[in-house]
Structures are given as C-alpha cells and as structure tokens.
Amino acid sequence: MSTFTDLGLQQPILDALLDLGYVKPSVIQEKAIPQIISSTTDLKAFAQTGTGKTAAFSLPIIELADLTNMNTQAIILSPTRELAVQIGKNIEDFSKYIPNLKTVTVYGGANIDEQIRKLKKGAHIVIGTPGRTVDLINRRALKLGNIKWVVLDEADEMLNMGFKEDLDKVLEATPNDKQTLLFSATFPREVEEIARNYMKNPVEVTSGEKNTGSNNVSHEYYLVNEKTRYPALRRIADVNPDIYAIVFCRTRRETQQVADNLIRDGYNADSLHGDLSQAQRDSVMEKFRKKTVQILVATDVAARGIDVTDLTHVINHKLPDQIENYNHRSGRTGRAGSKGISIVLVNRKEKGRLHSIERIIKQKFVATKIPTGKEICEKQLFHLIDKIKNTEINTSQIESFLPSVYEKFEHLSREELIQKFVSSQFNSFLSFYENTSDLNDLSSKENSRGRASSENMTRFFINIGRKDRLNPAKLIGLINDQNIGDKIEIGAIDILDTFSFFEIDKSFEDSTLEAFKVNEPEFGGRFVNIEITKSERGGGNRGGRKRGKKSFGSKNEGGFGRRRSSEKQNSRGRRSGSGFKNNQDSGGFGRKRKRITKK
Ligand code: ADP
Ligand code: MG
Fold this sequence. Notes:
By secondary structure, the chain is of the alpha/beta class. 43% of the residues lie in helices and 15% in strands.
C-alpha cells in the first residue's frame, strides 16, 4: 500500500492533502498519479464514482505545472457548471500551499467579461464547460497553444449532452504533443470512440470493474403506483429524520413538481435543473452543501459528478431513461468509504428494468416495504427524544428565564411534563399519520383512487378541537346552527387536539364558507374559523401535517429547528399552498404559526 509521498508529490501538496484528511491514495489515484507524472502517454482511466478521480488527474498536473511562466498549461473539461466549479475548488484546496499556481474556472451563465479579466491575469490551469471554453477561445481570451494536458472528465456525459462539436473545437486549439487524460465511470461505445479519435495509443488504468456500482451502496426498491409514488417518497423521508438525499427525476418538469410538492409539505427541499439561472443553481448547491437543504431534487444532467459527501440516500423518483445512468445516480452516495442507500420507486411495469440494472451493478435490489404511519411515528418520536437527550444546556443564556419557567411548571409532575412536552411536539405528526393506509397495498381503494369519501365531499379545516371540548356531536350541532341548508350532508369528521376537519357535500361548499363568515360563530369563547383544505393525491393528507413535519428539523438545526426552516421558506416566498395562511389571528393553529414565524 503506497502513500501520497510514494507517488512522487511535493511537500506543499502533501501538506494540503493532510489538511483535507486524505490519508492514503485510492486505487485509481495510486495507478494514475505516477503514470501521469512519469509519462507523456495519453491515459484512459475508469473508476467507479466516488473513488477520487478528481485528485487522480489534478494532483499530477499541479505537481508538474511550470510556474515560471503564466501560460495556460492544462485545460480540464467538465460537462456541467457545478462540476467545473467543484473541480476548481478541489484544485484550489490541493494547491493551497502553492500560492503562485493560478487556476480559473469558466462556465456559461456567468459574466463572461469577468472570466476574460481573470484569464488575462494568467491561469496555469483552466477548468471549463465545453461551450464556454469554445466561446472564450473564439474571443481569443483563452489561448491553448501551450497546453500540456487536456482532461476530459465525465467524458461519456459530455457526449450524451451533445458536446462533441465543442470538444472537437477545443482539441483543435491545442498542440499535438499534449497529453490527453480521459476519466470516466462508465465505458460506453462512445467513450471508446473519443479515445480512438482524440488519443494516441492510450494507456488504460482501471480500479475495480468497469461499470459496476460501488460496494458501499445498497440498493432497494419500493413498489408504487402513480397515486402512491409521491406519498411513498414522503414516507421514506419521514422515516429517515436525518435524511440528506438527492431525488433524481427524468425531466425538468418532474423535478420542479416533486420539489414544489416537498416544499409545500414542509420539507427542506429544493430543485436543481437546467431551467434555473446560474445564480439560482449556485445558491441551491451552496444550501445543499451546508445542509440547509436536506433533499435536493435534480435531473441527471444537473447533478452529474457533483460530489457532496455523506449523502444518506439517493432516491430514483423515476428510473433514468438510459439504465447506465443508474450507476451515476447511485454513485452520488456511498462515497469515500461511507455507506449509502440507493432507492428506486417503481411501478409494476418499470420493475422489469431492475434486472438489467442488476446485471450492470452486479448487485441485487432488495424489495422493501413502504413504512407504515406507525413505524414513522415511532422513528420520529425516538429521534426527537434522542435529540433532546443530546441537547447541550446553555445555562448562561437561559438562566434569567428559568425561575419564572419553573414557576409555571410547578404544579406539573415530571411525568405530566414529559407527556405534555411530547404531545406538543408530536401531536400533529401523529394526527397526520393516524388512519393512513398501507401504501404497500396497491389494490386498496384509497391507494388507487385517493381518499375514498372525498370525491363528492369538500374537506374543511376548523380551528377548534378536543382542547376546546369539541366532539363530533357538538361539531355537527355547530354546523347545523349556521343554517346552511336543510339537506346539507356532513361526511367524515376528524377531531384533533387543537383543530379538526369535517367534510361537507361539495354543493354546499360555498354556502358553508359564507355562513361561517357571516355568522362569526364562537365556540368555547373562541372565534371559529374554517377553511377548505387542499386534497392531495394518494396517501391521506391530514392537513395539520405541515406543522408536524417542521417539528422534526434536520440535524443541523438548533433546538427544534422549526423556526429556521420555516423562516427560510417564507423568505424565499416559495412556501405556497398552505391552506392555513390566513389563520394568524384565529387562535389555535394559526396563533401557533404566527408565534413560530415571527420570532
Ligand atoms: P469521482 O470523481 O471519482 O466520482 P471525487 O474525485 O469527486 O470522485 O471524490 C469523491 C470524494 O472522495 C471527495 O469528497 C474527495 O474529497 C474524497 N477523496 C478523494 N480521494 C481521497 C483520498 N485519497 N482520501 C480521502 N478522501 C478522498
Ligand atoms: Mg468526478
């Protein structure tokens, strides 16, 4: 087993690697680095995703770069802007003790004049997307006449994305005696063709078997139909309170839709796809890296090559059109030695495709059941309890409040206090999942048609509940008191702690709303407020859910995290679809929300 020193790297690089926590080289680094340092022969390198290919091509270039002149000596091409930026950052990290080494990253969607200015100052290494690189060559801002190394990272994807012409142009601008380095995780025919067209007698190095997936990733599939696909995704997120995942979609539209739904339902989610501006994409990636966004919904292309460590899950909302892409998706997790889970949601028809993927990844998919409401509640509850147990007490900050807080709780026993605390944090989560169906039973009426009784009924939210001593009989009495109509039909009633739901015959929807508005009824001394709840496809939406989810924030949110996440979403103006947003002054649910968001 060699060390980075054995590979022939200079001390400043070794120091930087130490800072980054790179202790020993990965297999592909062990093979590629000395090869590039000692030889000018072209190189094809294949290794699974997450095995450190970036360092494998960057370190030898940093080692060999001639800092006595300012010529551009290496051009590294990457299929996406995000990946280019990431490689640029990696190279800066690797060369932090070599201050004279200059790198510039260029990509579309960002100000070209600024990039030209930076290039004018001189760049030993340029990282770029093919389109922008060609643009800069045409404007004579980027001169490749002294290039010693061309790196094609994620070569297969560049071809998929139709960059062949751009690649031709870039390579034409480089001298003949350069060294071309091709790095890829998969090895389709097209890549072989690039090698044939662009490379001279290349040496090939591989780590592991080509095209096989990482062994650190386990693969699971969940059987769904179109009604249960999204609810299943939510349950997977809910049963993994610390989830940090990319959800892959096939199209931009699907991506936006899934992300919008997750955001609406209170998750720390965001989307990454080609319709976003560069600034938007940068900001999403930044938030995802910092884990303020826990779930990134992305297209294959947008997420290509992105290295975010510690992803817990990769979720295939739909399988990719080309099954080779499955490997790229699942390779986003289980990186650098950590474990990850790749999940596929498939319907009966799609399930057949799993076999072809199994042949590629040489691993079996494990059939997994969608968690039940009970399982989720249990998981969330204990997650919450553990979090409290592990919360550090910051005495100095809370000290002055404690005497009056103790006084308020004086009459409560320890057990009562715990019970109240758990209920306050947990009730809405429980109420969301109570009575929900088993999503694994695809033949059930509910899973195939949405909520059984909702077709001709409108579901109303009402801001009073058990705490106000409401029960079904009293609720029916209250509704009847509004004189909405003789023939009014009242459907299902759900009485919860601080709010409730009831169903009314659709034809009375408007008159019910109107009656409550005009009559301004009171109940137990409180103004009563009703609103129509939005019905949701698939698993039963119990309305009060939004508050529930936020009680269980991501691990990096301080305390209960609720404030941070809801503020964030409010400030982005994207938390749409809440059926309760006008409720701020109505007490109960509304009042709570107000307190949460205002602080
Ligand atoms: P690939 O391009 O092969 O998909 P990356 O170059 O993006 O993989 O590296 C994957 C992750 O592994 C990165 O977070 C990187 O910092 C880390 N890494 C790479 N090489 C090493 C090493 N020798 N020791 C520890 N971590 C490493
Ligand atoms: Mg890579």
